[in-house]
Every structure is written in C-alpha cells, then in structure tokens.
Amino acid sequence: MVALPEITSPTLDAIEAAVVAAEALNPRRGYIGASSIGNPCERHLFYQFRMAHEPERFPGRILRLFDTGHAEEVRMIAWLRMAGVDVQDVDPETGDQWEVEALEGHFKGHLDGIITGLLEAPKTPHLLECKTHNAKSFAQLKKHGVAVAKPEHVAQMQVYMHLKSLTRAVYLAKNKDTDELYLERVHNDQAHALQLLAKAERIRDANDAPERIGDADSFACKFCDSHPLCHGGAPALRHCRTCMHSAWDKDGCWHCLRHDRELTVEDQRAGCPNHLYLPSLVNGEQIDADEKAETVTYRMADGREWVDGQERTAA
Ligand code: SF4
Ligand code: SF4
After folding, report:
1. Which of 36, 49, 152, 221 has most ligand 1 atoms within 8 Å of its beta carbon, as the pocket-test mutant?
2. Distance 275 CA to ligand 2 centre (A)
3. Pair 188, 256 in one domain
4. Does 259 reside within a domain?
5. Prediction pTM value
6. Number of domains, the chain
7. Are residue 157 and residue 60 in the same domain, yes or no?
8. pLDDT tens profile 207-242
C-alpha cells in the first residue's frame, strides 16, 4: 500500500514557532526557586542557580501543557469561591501574585493564594497550592497522599507556610483527564521548612558543585537536564555566574570581586575576558595556577592539559 503523505499545516507550524519563541523571551530565573527546593539533587540545584548550562528547551506542545496547568489554577480558585471559600490569590498590599523571599533575595517563590473559610476549618487561614495531574499521577496521589506521591510539592508548601507564618496548607489537585478533584490539608512542619531553607543556603553559598546523587546510568540521573555537564564532560557556560570571581550580594544582587563592581543581570550574562571557571565546573583536575597571568591549568579527564584564561593571554 502506498503511504499517504504526512499532512502538514503552515498554521500549526506557525503556532509551534510562536509558542517556542514566546518562551525564549522569558528571562531565566536567577534565584533558587521554592518550587524546585524539594529536588533531591543539590548538585542540580547548584547548576541551575549558577546557570551553568542552558535551561531545558521544550517543544510547543509541552509549553502549551504547562500553560494549561496555569489556566486550570484559575478555574480551581473559581470553584473554591463557588463553594463559599474566601481566596486571596493576589497580595492586597501589592496587587500582584503573593511572593515569598529569603536568603537576601536569592530564594523566592510564588503562592497560588491564601484562603479562609475552608469548610473543614473555617477560622484557620490556609496556604493554597493548586496542581494538575495526569491520570497515573492522580491515582498515586489518591492512593498515597501528597507527602508520598509528590514530596517536592510538600517541600514547596512547607517553605511557603513557614515564610508566611501559616499553620496549614490546602493541596487542591485536579485530574486533567477526568476533572476529578482531590483535596488534602497539610500541617506546618517547622523542622522540615528549616531543613529546606538550610539546603537553599548551602546551594547559594557553594563554590563547589555538591556531590552527585547517582551514576551516569542511574534512574536519578538519566533524565536530568544537567546530565551532559554533570556526567558527560560538556563545558559549562562562560558568564559571571560560573566565574570564580563572582559572589552573591544583598537584595538578590551579584558582585564581581575581580573588578569590584555590582553585576547587573545583563553584566552577568555577558561576563568579561577575565572570566575563570569555578574549578568544579571543569571536567578535570586543577594542577597549576598563575596569579599574575590569571590562568588556571587543568589535567582534563581525557588526559590533555587545558589552561583556563589562555585565550585572553593569547589575544
Ligand atoms: S545528573 Fe544526577 S548527580 Fe548530576 S545533577 Fe543531575 S541528578 Fe544530580
Ligand atoms: S571577572 Fe568578569 S566574568 Fe568574572 S565575575 Fe567579574 S565581570 Fe564577571
């Protein structure tokens, strides 16, 4: 049988390109996010904070799926209001989405809302966290509860409760396939929240990449977008956040110790010719350093010698 030609649509191609292009315009997050602090790998969070590799790029279909999740949150809030629950989905002081911040502005998160009048506990203000799940994930949630099924979501809620001085959270989940809802109340666990903030502080203060949590072929690492840098020897990006001369500063800012100046976001992206990699971002062992020439020599994993800063001295 002759194969039918694949049906293509220039309009669908244009939608795909527009969605991907719109995403590319979003500035890269420069802080440690509450939504990712539950990730078990501190090394991955360090790479993210230092922007050591390009962020994961998604096709238009996946980006639209993320967008659907955000749109569903609006509907879930509307359903709560229909049930008589008072939902504050924006901070009345700013008129913007609720934001929490810690560690001198290097840790941030954004809350879905704060609610009162929950029928189970009408007087107690609750943090609201809305999430959508596919059918498989939703079944796991119903079977095991959020602490087991989605520990990273609990981590996010614990930090939010701690930073907003709330004692309870409501986890409202929706099955994307059937529209079934699931609601679970979560108690504040101060010790857990403090552990998570200490973890974020370690990542902010680290100049060396934390230990790996698995081998290259392990399940934990196989699907990690840091894998090429972490296990594959791919070079880290060259900009201020990967430079040994940069240091975090107050109010979420960054400072260059080499030039003694504050680094704007644009500066950080651009870097400068005096860039020298944080040694743990180089796939080799440091064997020499020349302070005057501002170079560092490494024995790379493949045995060759490589001098960081050599291009500058040769120019
Ligand atoms: S590849 Fe594994 S060890 Fe490396 S950052 Fe990812 S999860 Fe962590
Ligand atoms: S030396 Fe250059 S690349 Fe390094 S932190 Fe300073 S400005 Fe950035």
Report:
1. 221
2. 5
3. no
4. yes
5. 0.93
6. 2
7. yes
8. 999 999 999 999 999 999 999 999 999 999 999 999
